[in-house]
């Protein structure tokens, strides 16, 4: 068994978002083929959570076990720690991943999973764009120019060569400046516009990526997108909390998820309406389905689209993609990192 640190992972992946996107593609092919196992009553749970209060702040921990077959044949658990800012630490999140041999259960590795989480989250959005966005897309909007959206931008620009404009809505000058520098250093012919309103970012964009926060005091504080701001055939990638009018979600958009069964599990675990407790757009899809306002057949899984088992009917509607993170994605990328670490003799042997 070996320990693999975030620094080891960085040296292995080397910010190659295209490599990670290919791993995510294989992951979702296995999911589409039902070659996976997750926890929970419905077999599709995001994970088992505990919470308690310390120093008047809620601490949430989530155990995210899973098995992924296909090209991986690996089992393991991601341990999701609380999102806190602590002195002398530049990371708010604390994630750990343990991988086991799927047959014997023998532990293979324990690894830091902060970078694993960032890379796989970004790569899932890039993968969705490859299969859902217009091939001739010319403009990109970024709401929340942090680390994940920087990776998403890199992946999208690698695949959509016609994009020459990016509209950026951020909250702080520091994150905006870092984003601009990283993107313009690599893509010098792309023009970046800094805007102060979500409307100004998204209204002219063919692809929109929203990745801001996973905690807001109230729903109205979240990034809000009005129907009039959405271009025909545009794509909205929502990997964090976001807010769209019900009219858009009911009959004004194509609706795609990483795995809709996970949002059904949220309803079972958090209670209805799940969107009130975890405001991923997929949970809003599930709420509307339970209310009888949309049909289950109106909601598509990205794996089914990748494997061509289903096809969205050609129309002028914008498409909204919801991803909230599956342990299966962590297992897939973690296993590939483990294999490379063994090959390169990277990591620290525990026993």
From TrEMBL:
Keyword Lyase among UniProt keywords: yes
Enzyme Commission code(s) on record: 4.3.1.12
Taxonomic lineage from the root: Bacteria, Pseudomonadati, Campylobacterota, Epsilonproteobacteria, Campylobacterales
Classification via InterPro entries: NAD(P)-bd_dom_sf (IPR036291), ODC_Mu_crystall (IPR003462), ODC_N (IPR023401)
Keyword list, A-Z: Lyase
Gene Ontology MF terms: ornithine cyclodeaminase activity
Organism annotation: Campylobacter pinnipediorum subsp. caledonicus
Cellular component terms (Gene Ontology): cytoplasm
Alphabetical list of Gene3D superfamilies matching this protein: NAD(P)-binding Rossmann-like Domain, ornithine cyclodeaminase, domain 1
The encoding gene: arcB
Protein name, as recorded: Ornithine cyclodeaminase
């Amino acid at each position: 068994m070996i320990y693999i640190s975030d620094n080891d992972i960085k040296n292995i992946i080397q910010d190659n978002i295209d490599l990670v996107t290919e791993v995510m593609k294989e992951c979702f092919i296995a999911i589409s083929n039902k070659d996976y196992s997750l926890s929970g009553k419905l077999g599709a749970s995001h994970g088992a959570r505990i919470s308690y209060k310390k120093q008047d702040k809620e601490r949430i921990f989530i155990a995210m076990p899973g098995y992924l077959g296909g090209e991986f044949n690996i089992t393991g658990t991601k341990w999701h720690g609380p999102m806190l800012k602590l002195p002398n630490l530049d990371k708010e999140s604390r994630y750990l991943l343990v991988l086991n041999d799927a047959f014997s259960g023998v532990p293979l590795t324990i690894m830091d999973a902060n970078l694993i989480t960032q890379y796989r989250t970004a790569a899932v959005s890039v993968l969705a764009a490859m299969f859902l966005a217009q091939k001739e897309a010319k403009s990109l909007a970024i709401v929340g120019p942090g680390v994940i959206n920087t990776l998403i931008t890199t992946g999208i620009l690698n695949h959509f060569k016609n994009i020459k404009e990016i509209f950026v809505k951020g909250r702080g000058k520091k994150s905006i400046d870092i984003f601009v520098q990283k993107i313009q250093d690599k893509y010098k012919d792309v023009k970046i516009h800094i805007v102060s309103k979500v409307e100004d970012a998204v209204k002219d964009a063919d692809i929109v990526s929203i990745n801001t926060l996973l905690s807001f005091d109230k729903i109205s504080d979240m990034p809000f997108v009005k129907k009039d701001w959405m271009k025909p055939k545009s794509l909205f990638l929502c990997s964090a909390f976001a807010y769209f009018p019900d009219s858009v979600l009911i009959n004004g958009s194509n609706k795609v998820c990483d795995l809709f069964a996970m949002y059904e599990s949220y309803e079972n675990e958090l209670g209805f309406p799940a969107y009130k407790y975890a405001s991923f757009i997929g949970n809003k899809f599930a709420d509307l389905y339970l209310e009888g306002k949309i049909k289950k057949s109106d909601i598509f899984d990205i794996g089914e689209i990748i494997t061509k088992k289903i096809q969205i009917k050609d129309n002028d509607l914008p498409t909204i993609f919801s991803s909230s993170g599956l342990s299966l994605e962590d297992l897939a990328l973690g296993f590939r990192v483990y294999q490379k670490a063994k090959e390169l003799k990277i990591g620290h042997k525990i026993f």
